[in-house]
Amino acid sequence: MTTLSAPLAPGDALPRLSLVSPAGEAVALDAIAASSPRTVLYFMRTSTCPVCHQHLRAISRMGLPVTVIVPGGAAEADAVARRHPALASRIVASETAHADVGLFVRHGLQQSGTFVVADGRIVHARHATVPLGAFDAGEVRAALE
Length: 145
Hints:
- By secondary structure, the chain is an alpha/beta fold.
- Helix content is 28%, strand content 27%.
């Protein structure tokens, strides 16, 4: 695991992330994202964050090519997948991915964030300690075009 001094920004390469499915199987992000030339990575603050769950409902309604990354392990990914069955195949967890993309724990809160990735590079990044600031539907739509 590499800890970054700042979150990834547009132009940065996406690092290799260690991910696990809700069933506990290792998952390659490349395999999930292969269905779309541009994909959205949404990093939840916690599996129980109500604002993050609102963002997931919005993402689901928008039909975005998304991978949802929950901090923790298979149990946390499974809890989120059960709440969002339409996104269940695109929900994974990781003990290290948030730090690997530069999302920190600040003032006791895990940062959440949204990254749009094209060809392995970040083309849009939004992150915040308060989850209300971690997702903007208009920005994501623009970055996907």
